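User: For a reading group we're discussing how well predicted structures match intuition. Take ABC transporter substrate-binding protein. Before you show the prediction, I'll give you the sequence so everyone sees exactly what went in.
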Amino acid sequence: MELKRRSVLAALGAGTAAALTGCGSGASADGGSADGPAKGEITLLTPIYEKADGKKLLEQDIIGGFHKKYPDVKVTVDYTTYTQLNEKITTAMAGGLLPDVMMMGVGWIPPFAAKKAIAELPESLAAAHDYEKRVLEPSRYDGRLYALPVVLDTRIVVYRKDHFAEAGIKKTPANWTELRAMAKQLTTKGRIGFDPFSAELRQVWETFLFANGGSLFSDDGKKVLFNDTRGVEALQFFKDLIADGSADYTKKTELGAPTNVQTGKASMMVTTSALWKQLQDQKPELLEGDTLGAFVLANRRPAMLQGGTLVTQSARSKHPAAARAFVEYLASPESILGAAKQRGSVPGMRDLGAAGTAYTKENEFVDLSLKNLGNACSEGGTAAWMEIREKIKPTLEPAIVGGQSAAKAIAELGKLAEAAIARM
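Assistant: Thanks. Here is the predicted 3D structure of ABC transporter substrate-binding protein, as structure tokens, for the group to look at:
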């Protein structure tokens, strides 16, 4: 009865912590032996490879190439979205029906590794390709490798060069003081100087926290660190921009819609490298005319949030050799490059050959991101992350849209995070 109750709670989204507790104790952390021949029928759960072109890339090109190498393995794909992914995984955990191979977000590995839902991978895979150290950090838990990076989605600032020229601004801001002053200077009737809100609020606040020299959690993931002055100042900066009239939470755009920068309704905005591909489809003249530039946010230090998609293996797979082989294939240069091109994302490794070099040079936002991977910071870092991440936006939003102070909102979020960690 207890398993049934938790399964229902997970399916209703009644709390990640409850759903995770529903994980049975029979899972093996090593996913069984992956030393035998790769054969059998396995399932992939993925939130990427969207739309017709993504499905074609995955099923015909990537899985087609995998079948040539491993003809005795059949792959069935279960498509989902990042909005539904956590619920889908936790529901599958409660029912004991985890997919053999899963794609997850940055920050997701510690929670699922702690519950022995995913299998540890050989450390040799971390050295198989030219990974930046920071790219591999989110793939680890307790010092062990549990996933491989596929594509990265970095948070950078894109700006209108023509707006800067009109205002006589000759350089990008080196710190928040300059950023605030420029945003005020660029704000005119019908145009805001800076749009930090069209990107996910959780990740934008984290980017500002990191740029302010702050951290989310201690290295062991057991202590909350963001509830100090660095975290408060990051949230307060948003309130200051709104007070100046140079940012407006009500004018944020939805994912995939024409952005405020491309329509000229904002001079600067926080976004991802994928905006380059969106502009190619919706407003190519901005790229052809060299109208847009990009920079990495900085205050006490330069910082670029590193999100993205990782691939991992279920600890419960009945065909661990096939699952391990598919994980490695999805994280191979050919597969990664295809996924990056389709999404306009940053490849998870550097050694992609001539085709990879051509792609990264063509997408200037990707190029900027690759050059700044040394400044990349990842969200997550605690086994309680899946519960905490869902509370960040609703806890911080009242300080932006209402009269709550930044200090009170951060203190409240800190208490929620500490309670979540204590329950682990």
